[in-house]
Amino acid sequence: xxxxxxxxxxxxxxxxxxxxxxxxxxxxxxxxxxxxxxxxxxxxxxxxxxxxxxxxxxxxxxxxxxxxxxxxxxxxxxxxxxxxxxxxxxxxxxxxxxxxxxxx
Length: 104
Known about the structure:
The protein is an all-alpha fold. The chain has one helix spanning 2-60.
């Protein structure tokens, strides 16, 4: 009798665990769907607000003609990356011999 009751208890716990896992998966899927819908709605709302405010900002002279310029990205040392090529010495300068200063 005890073994049968124990087996039934284990079966109930196993089925309850499976039910909980299924419910969690459904809740996660629903949450993903709601988030995706909410993000799309916020983006649309933001675009609508910008479109409505654009003429007002133009009249007030607050609208920029172009988007803000991106800032230059800095290297790990904090110095801006070098964008121009280094100058090389002129051809023939310093070939094979050291230059000497004349004595006075």
